[in-house]
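DEPOSITED CHAIN:
***
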Amino acid sequence: MATVTNWIDHLSASEIAGQVYPMVGSELWWVLAGIIFWIWWTVATANGEAEEQEKLARKRHGPNDYKKNIAEW
């Protein structure tokens, strides 16, 4: 196993010159994928919470019903 004592010489060597890590240049695609995932997650979570709130609203719970120990409150 080789050891590196000088990173500048190592990275500018002819057999190493070029990409320092795999998939250089794909950062934009990863950022876009992350943003798309974040938007999807936000919409999916909002829809799920809206459905849950609609379900509870249909039950027409009153402000004091929690005192009666209603299941699925």
